[in-house]
Structures are given as C-alpha cells and as structure tokens.
Amino acid sequence: KIDADRLWGDLMETAAIGGTAKGGIRRLALSEEDRRVRDWFRTRCEALGCSVTVDGMGNMFAVRPGQDPELEPIAIGSHLDTQPTGGKFDGVLGVLAGLEILRTLEATEFRTRHPLVLVNWTNEEGARFSPAMLGSGVHAGKFDAAYAYGREDADGISVETALDAIGYRGGEPVGSMRFAAMFELHIEQGPILEDEERLIGIVEGVQGMRWFDVVVEGRESHAGSTPMETRRDALVVAADLIGRVTAIATAAGGKGTVGHLEVEPNSRNVVPGTVRMSVDLRHEDDAQLDAMTAALEQQIARLGEGPVSLSLTEIWRNPVVPFDADCVSAVAAAAEASGYPSRRLYSGAGHDAANVAAVAPTAMIFIPCREGLSHNEAESCTLEECAAGAQTLLDAVLIYDRR
Amino acid sequence: KIDADRLWGDLMETAAIGGTAKGGIRRLALSEEDRRVRDWFRTRCEALGCSVTVDGMGNMFAVRPGQDPELEPIAIGSHLDTQPTGGKFDGVLGVLAGLEILRTLEATEFRTRHPLVLVNWTNEEGARFSPAMLGSGVHAGKFDAAYAYGREDADGISVETALDAIGYRGGEPVGSMRFAAMFELHIEQGPILEDEERLIGIVEGVQGMRWFDVVVEGRESHAGSTPMETRRDALVVAADLIGRVTAIATAAGGKGTVGHLEVEPNSRNVVPGTVRMSVDLRHEDDAQLDAMTAALEQQIARLGEGPVSLSLTEIWRNPVVPFDADCVSAVAAAAEASGYPSRRLYSGAGHDAANVAAVAPTAMIFIPCREGLSHNEAESCTLEECAAGAQTLLDAVLIYDRR
Ligand SMILES: NC(=O)NCCC(=O)O
Ligand SMILES: NC(=O)NCCC(=O)O
C-alpha cells in the first residue's frame, strides 16, 4: 500500500518550484525551474539507492534492481515540465507516484523480478520547444536527435543550448535503455471520468493528432485611410480560418484548436500585415483525421483566393496509438482488485507513453481532475484520487511483473 | 515658386536622422533622434531670421513677421516624429514644405500681411506615447497638460521626463500662441488620389474616430481532451467579433480595424483563456459612428450570452471635424491656379490640424502616396508630388493672407 500523505507532500513540495501566485506551476522545459526540480528528483531517487542516469536528450532514468538481472526493466514515470500557466498534476503526478512506489517497495523490502526504472521525460509539453513529447520521441526513434537538438524556443534558444545551460545533456545514448513494458499514470485532462464518477481510467490508446503552422500574409496599411474594399487584412482572414477550424472539428466529432496566434505589427491603427498561427487537429480515427486535414487544406486554398496569401505547414503528426492488450489488462485487473470504479477510454492528450508504445508494450492509467480542467493553473485533483492512481500503478506493475 | 530640389534635399537630409536600413525612418517622439531633428529644424529657421519658441509640451513655433503686427499669424506645419517603422513623408513633408515656403518668401523678399508661423507638433503619431496628436491636443485644449505630461511609453518613461531629457520642455505657456488660420500639408496615407490620378486633395474634414479595448475571458483548457461542446475558447469568440467589426464598418460605409490582439496563454495545445484586442472605428458622419458603436456594443452583448464573457472600454474618441469653409476654398483656389488635378475628400487619418480646428480656422492639403501605403517603411512619394503640395500650401496661404 502506497502512502497517500507522503505522495501528496511531494506534490506540494515540488509545486513550489516554479509555483505561481494563482496556485499553478510555470516550469518550462529546460528552464532554471526545470533544473531545480530535476536536481530534487535525482537527490530523492539516489537517497532510495537508485542509480540515476541521464541520456543525451536529458531524459532521466532512476533504476531499482530486480531479482533477475537478465530481465529488462519495467518503466514507470511521466514528465516534470509544465505549460507556461500549468497546474500541479499534469505530468508531475506520474513521476512522483513512481517515486512513491519505489519508496513503498524499499520500505517493505520488496524486490520485483524485473528491475524498475522511473523516468522523467524531457519537454513533454511542447510549450517551450515544439513538438511535444520530444524526449520520448527521440527515445522511441520517432525523431532523430539532430532534429530535436535544433528545435528552438521563441527567443531562438535551441534544445541543445538549453540542455547544456542547465547541465542536463547526459552521456547515455538516447534509446539505449530498453523496457520490458511501460506504465504511465496521468490526470485525464478531460471531463469523462468526473462526469461518470469513475476513479480510474483504463486507457486503451491515444488519439491521432496533427500540428500545423499557418502564415497569413496581407499588407500593413493605415487603419484610418485604407478603404475596407482595398485592405489586405491578415487578421480578418485568420479570424475566418479560426471559425472554420472549429466547424471542421465539430462536424467530424474530433477536436480542432488555434492556441497560438501572433499579429504583426500589432499596432492599434495599422491594418495587420501578417498573422502566424497554429492549428491542432485530433481524432480517435486516423481516417477521420485525414478527412479533417483535407477540409483544412480546402479552407486554406479557398481563403487564399482572396487578396491575402496563406501557407499551411504540417510540423508534426502522431497516428492513433492503440496500447498493448496485456498491459491494458494488467491495469484493468489492478483497478478491479482495489474495487475502484473504472472505465476504459481513449486519451485526448498526447503522452510520452504513446511514443514508448512504438518500442515497448505500454499502457496508461488516468485519474479524474476537476471539470476536466488542465493546462490551467486551477487544475485540481484530490489526495484520494492521486492515491488511487498511484496504488493502481503499483498493482499493475506487480501484476505484470508476476506474469 | 518654391524650389522643388531644395525641398527634396531637405527631405533626404533629415531622413538620415533615424533612417532605417529599409529606407524608412524610426524617429519616435522625444527620442534622441527627435532631439537631433528638432535642433536641425531650429537652426534652419533661425538662419532665415525667424524667432523660434518652444512651449511647455515641446511644440516648436518659428515666427516670420508680417506687415501688420496687429494680425495673428497664419500657421503652417505638421510633425517630425514617426512610427517605429515609419516612412520618409508622413508628417515630415508638412514641416519641410513650410520651411521651403519661408525660404522662398525670404529669397523673394516677399512680406505677407499676417506673420507666418511654422509649427512642429510634439508626438503626433501616438506610437511612443498614446494617444496620438498629443502636443496639438493640449494646444487646442482637448487634453490638459497634467494628463499629457503623465502619459508613459512602454518603458514607463513619462512625456514630462522625456521632454526634459532632450531639453525641449519650453517656457511658452501651451496654447498661448493664437492663429489667424492653419494650413497643414500631409500625404494622403490612402489610395484615393493615386487611383483617380489627382495631384492635390482638398481636405474638407477629418473622420470621427473611436478607440476601444476589448477583453474576452474564456477558460484555458487542454486542446486534446476538452470536448468542443464544453470549451470556453476566448479566441474563437474574438475571431467572431473580428468578422463583425469588418461587417459593421462595411455596412456603414466607415472603417473598422482590429490592429492589436494578444492571446493568453498563447500555447499551441491550450484552448485560449483570454484575448485582449483593440477596435478602431471611423466614419465621416458622427451619427453613423454612433450607430457603428451601438452595433459593436450589441455584438459584444450577443457574444457575451455564450460561455465566454466580453468587456468593451472606449479609451479615446474624436468627433468628425469639418474644416473651415474659407480655408478649404483657399486650398481649392490654390490648386486650381496651378492647374493641378484635384478632388475634395475627407481625411481617414487623424491629424494635428483636426485639433487646431477647435481653436482656429483650419484646412489641409493632401498629396498622393504610392498604393496609399503609410505607417510602412515603403511609404513613397515623388519629388513632383511633394513640390505640388508645397506650392499649393504657399498659394493657399497667400490667397488667405490677401482676403
Ligand atoms: N498530456 C499533455 O498535455 N501532453 C501534451 C501534448 C498534447 O498536446 O497532447
Ligand atoms: N496621420 C496619422 O497617421 N495619425 C495617427 C492617428 C490615426 O489616425 O490613427
């Protein structure tokens, strides 16, 4: 049995690293705050007798030996980076629940057959460096390291430079650590479990997702003296596209979001010359996602027939990822053993587990969060929910380890 | 007859003060560049025997005596400050054409009945310190001096501090200089004259204009796991409003612009929680502008019935300013005398003349600029256009002076 209060204490203690006035966390990947929470994590793992290694992407691995040194380790973990105005649970819960599990096993002197490895993946959020889940992506062979090192933040600082700046470019070759399986605990970040009063989500897979950059090029001109008819207003066209993205997603039963948008020159009395924006499309069915993408391309082409030009660049795509049936059944058995009300569901958010699924049997566990709210400082879970998630994670690992 | 080459030489010489690589000017109000061009201006005026005074807002007045010391002076002039990426003609032309006129009169030893006063108004652009046309606004009693002194730039530097820093807080009480009339030459900043191949615009007045701030408050949430139906997406609603602003302006035959927009948290996979944006509405008829404002309020109220809340704040308004019929007829007669193709039109942009019109008979003269482009480093006029504008300005002053 895991210790719920101890887990909660860790959650609250680390929430202070990058803690915001509104009770959230701002801990962007490879920032100074990220360095501090990484140092904290390393110290805690080493205090439990684990050996901590860091790979070339800054992914951190804390290994607890098993009975059989021939067996590959079972991985648990998630990520410690957050959104610019993130909450206290997204990612962090999966790592700290893993720490709590190692501590529980250590306290009871229980040794699993497989070694266990607790992982902190680099830049899961994709908020500072796009795309998301970069560290696990290189680990799983989805991105090559050169691509990942070259990704830049808004100030032009590369992942490589940022890794060196905080001293977390490690010596281990990326992807060299092989897993027997991986289990990731995470908050749902959506409203389904709460609405149905379920404590545990047995995650069967992850939605397919595609990220696009759109540039709308019009022409700057004077807001007072340029007639409406001769304007080439980039923002008016961008606004039209935003409405289309919503319509496309709603019609397909998927999701469509413009989360990022910049206007140039962004002056009150100047007709906008350029707009740069993102589009995020998701669906549980890749064929539907293809249809959504085609509809987006069609709207871009249609809008581009006017006096403003548009470009669409796909910068990232992840297909629908179904999780491993054995791992999923271990999660289901664990939830049932504790008598937690549960349901099977798909993840709307991307997760490191979706990358790892390409190289190891993988599954995920969700717990509810208030009003499905995430990527928000008000993100909230109860101690009981966190504890149920951590217990299910421990039990799933033990069930899988015994098979 | 003014000397076109001499005027052009002055335009090119002063364009180097704050000149940019792309051929524009960056000469923000009360900056070091502004100080240098002011010093240049003072030296040139004094060399012509004018006495130069500076008022408490930094407005500069170069007086050339007339035959009748009892008469109030006829004012000409404009502004020497520019947008951050401004062109070589916006404002500057009106001041340097005035200088060329004084030089022409001096060379021909012609003395007008009224004294003439060439004015350089402080902070016309409103780019460094908002609102625009601040110096002429205090002169005309539209703003009080304490308000103007307290306006701050993005770095928190006040107008008062900036005036002292460049040594241009003068001793003359603001507004103490009375004008018999004022004529301002300016580029059109719109496409009408060029499209109709007219060399001179006889400006009958200035559009009414209102500036608003809009805040759209929704709720940040996860782009992957928040169902479309439960989102409170501030940007989707802002986009809807942008379309409405265009529709309102087009329907009313006015202008409507969203030039400034900021998204929070502006992250690719976060449903936007807050959008802050500007709305600029203009019309040649105040009743229509009232109707546009009411339509905007109605859209704000309608959109606010959904899951997102909106607020609208009017931060500045200027009514329609019709120019003085006698001054306008002097401009028309001057254009006709030279045989320049001309038309009457309203100004879409705000100008110092629109403030001065509250305290003296006033009119303006426009010349075309390429593609109506302004507030852009590519802003461009020909030597012939500048010369025609300066000649019309001189002739209008002489016609008015003789009446
Ligand atoms: N879990 C999570 O928020 N991942 C970020 C990637 C995504 O946008 O789904
Ligand atoms: N002439 C000019 O650009 N004035 C600035 C104020 C405005 O019209 O927006």
TrEMBL record, chains A, B:
InterPro entries: Amidase_Cbmase, Bact_exopeptidase_dim_dom, Peptidase_M20, Peptidase_M20_dimer
Residues annotated for Zn(2+) 2 binding in this entry: 90, 125, 375
Enzyme superclass (EC): hydrolase
Pfam families in UniProt: M20_dimer, Peptidase_M20
Cofactor, free-text remark: Binds 2 Zn(2+) ions per subunit.
Alphabetical list of CDD domains matching this protein: M20_bAS (cd03884)
UniProt domain Peptidase M20 dimerisation: residue ranges: 206-302
Enzyme Commission (EC) number: 3.5.1.87
One MF term in the entry's GO annotations: hydrolase activity, acting on carbon-nitrogen (but not peptide) bonds, in linear amidines
Keywords recorded for this protein, A-Z: Hydrolase, Metal-binding, Zinc
Cofactor: Zn(2+)
Binding site for Zn(2+) 1: 79, 90, 186
PANTHER family reported in the protein's UniProt record: ALLANTOATE AMIDOHYDROLASE (PTHR32494:SF5), ALLANTOATE DEIMINASE-RELATED (PTHR32494)
Family: Belongs to the peptidase M20 family.
Protein name, entry field: N-carbamoyl-L-amino-acid hydrolase
Lineage: Bacteria, Pseudomonadati, Pseudomonadota, Alphaproteobacteria, Hyphomicrobiales
